[in-house]
Design a protein that fits this description.
- Strand 4, helix 6 and strand 5 form a beta-alpha-beta unit.
- Helix content is 42%, strand content 17%.
């Protein structure tokens, strides 16, 4: 059976994290869609495991949290009306304000259970209790207090928006016309309370993954592929792509990596995992540098 070279696999993964759809990547590389989706599944699974094992003991002073809307197969309204598909799928993100490292993320629904899951995961990855800032989604307050306990400093941003666009601009988001900050728990420094960095990272997700581009047919058709694409994106964001302001990757800035990785490094690690019969990720993480 023919096997793609490491360079070709790296080229495919690079295309997927730079905004190309599965179909366009297939046309550019001459590979079948099935091959690309299998590679995406391998890379996504590995990326999720790599994140889980390496993004630990993070020393963070401030963390920003937000949610990104997307859908799989069809939107929630269409699903309620009998449409086929998973429906809405929200990406929950917790980002360190200084290193820009995405500390925690998950794919789920916008509800209390997933807010709690994000905060519990975040609490397991940071060394102390950072100041946390979120939007005004009500479920965060209990989730933050439950995960971090007494003494946590938690601020909430309440944004006010103008009237929705009409006519040609009706698909554009409304304009933010005001922002209030409240101390929800503890004694947070409201001057430093912000969600600007995590929202900018959300834009990188929408621009870097075709599945999140609005008003196209590049959306995910299966929730499994959606989760793999999200995991691959955050591996690339944390460990490969140099941040324009930091001049290095968030992982290096956070002290959990010594140098930026490349997509060839990712392919090499995946291939080594494939070669290990019953091997675990922890068996070869040191060799990955």
């Amino acid at each position: 059976m023919n096997k793609l070279t490491a360079e070709r696999r790296a080229a495919i993964l690079s295309a997927l994290v730079e905004g190309s759809s599965v179909n366009s990547t297939a046309r550019m590389t001459g590979c079948s869609q099935v091959t690309i989706l299998r590679l995406l599944a391998d890379a996504g699974s590995f990326s999720a495991d790599y994140h889980d094992l390496t993004v630990r003991n993070i020393r963070s002073e401030r963390v920003e949290c937000d949610e990104v809307w997307s859908f799989v197969g069809c939107k929630a309204r269409t699903k309620r009306n009998g449409g086929e598909g998973h429906g809405d799928a929200w990406i929950w993100v917790a980002l360190d304000s200084d290193s820009k490292l995405v500390v925690s993320y998950l794919v789920g629904e916008r509800n209390g259970a997933h807010a709690e899951a994000l905060m519990l995961d975040l609490a397991s990855r940071v060394v102390a209790k950072p100041q946390i800032t979120t939007d005004s989604f009500a479920a965060y307050r209990y989730a933050v207090g439950m995960a971090f306990g007494a003494g946590v400093n938690y601020a909430v941003l309440h944004k006010s928006y103008g009237s929705p666009y009409k006519g040609d601009g009706r698909y554009s988001p409304p304009v933010c016309v005001g922002c209030d900050k409240d101390a929800a728990l503890g004694n947070p420094d409201l001057e430093r309370a912000s969600t600007s960095y995590v929202e900018r990272q959300n834009l990188s997700l929408r621009m870097g993954s075709r599945r999140f581009t609005r008003l196209t047919n590049g959306f995910s058709k299966k929730i499994e592929n959606h989760a793999h694409a999200v995991a691959l994106h955050y591996f690339h964001y944390n460990f490969v792509r140099k941040h324009a302001t930091l001049k290095t990757t968030p992982a290096v800035a956070a002290g959990i990596a010594t140098k930026p990785l490349t997509m060839l490094d990712l392919v090499a690690m995946i291939e080594r995992e494939e070669a290990l019969t019953g091997g675990r990720l922890t068996d070869y993480l040191p060799a990955a540098g």
